[in-house]
Amino acid sequence: MSEGKQCNHCGDVKPLDQFHKDKARPDGRKARCKACINLSNKSRSPERKREIAERQALWRESNPGKGAEITRRWRVNNPERAKDSRKKEYRKDPAKEKARSREWRKRNPERLRHHLALYRARHPEVYRAASQRRYALKSKAETKDVTAKDLHRILASSCVACGEERVELDHIIPLSRGGRHSVGNLQPLCRGCNGSKKDLLMVEWREKQHGCS
Fold first, then answer.
1. Cα 38 to chain center, whole Å?
2. Which fold has domain 128-212?
């Protein structure tokens, strides 16, 4: 099979990936390129669009589950395009997309837990940010936006007290003492130092350390 193909509408020779697949054709591709098909679709009359929509709805009723499976396979094979498509749909009607998302979550609790577990494993810093914010809100502390990028930068540093590399977040001025949940009030401490500091200020904690030595 050649690497290119001529569109029978615009006459341009284009790569094969610029033509939709068609098992019925000898070369396995549509005769018209994607650009020409998209242009044709946009110029359809409202009546023609309704006719096509009704035909598609009838096919989905006659083939329950098949359309969803085709869509899932396409999303797996085209992750970037699928992501762009979801963004476009959301921008077009945010309320509709949010409602559809809530309905899917209700219908698929097991799949939702699986997806969340995968996302959490791939993006632990995002979950740390959410967890810290929830804790701050629960403590009724003043909160400022702390992004996942901020947390990643802080947690990539060593413990400010002892130099240990494995660290966790600490509020310099504890939330229980009026501290804010903000980038300027966060520092990296190892588990041992953080557990020892508790709700003390750094000055108080260091005095306590020296007093105990």
1. 28
2. DNA Binding (I), subunit A (1.10.30)
